[in-house]
Amino acid sequence: MAEATVAAVSRSGSHTFGKYGEPDIRLVAGLGVEGDAHSGATVKHRSRVAQDPTQPNLRQVHLIHSELHEELRAAGFEVAAGELGENVTTRGLDLLALPTGTLLRLGEAAVVEVTGLRNPCAQIDRFRPGLLKQVVGRDDSGRLVRKAGIMGVVVTGGPVRPGDAIRVELPPPPHRSLERV
């Protein structure tokens, strides 16, 4: 199996759907991506702020596997790194199979703790009509499957760049499957 790596990094200082590619980003412990609109100890996603602005921000960093972009291209949807709102685009790592509490060591110093699955919303269809059906579906048992990446919180800050290695540290068993956050 190929080594897991960072394929791209992105951020946006405003609440835009997509984020913009950068040569590097800096993760800040307890907050998220420096200069990103979703950075903060409490929720920053507008719908969640409207519900309860004091909720802890379990969505400080959004990660998507580049293999999803390839799958979407094969289905006729052209999607580039950052366009689905992710901060870190990965390669060679099955993000959706990781258990809650997994630590992802990105580059030399940064550590992100996986908190759960991204819950895709209708904004995805406004970006590309029909795309929501590609990132949310049902498995053979009829269970909902969310494929639009995972969310995490920054445990240890540091710079993250394309090409950085990603090392995975699983939590002690029993492992808990990812749920939407």
Automatic annotation (TrEMBL):
GO terms for molecular function: catalytic activity; molybdenum ion binding; pyridoxal phosphate binding. Residues 20-169 form the MOSC domain. Signal peptide: none annotated. Pfam families: MOSC. InterPro entries: MoCF_Sase_C (IPR005302), MOSC_domain (IPR052716), Pyrv_Knase-like_insert_dom_sf (IPR011037). PANTHER family: METAL-SULFUR CLUSTER BIOSYNTHESIS PROTEINS YUAD-RELATED, MOSC DOMAIN-CONTAINING PROTEIN. This is MOSC domain-containing protein.
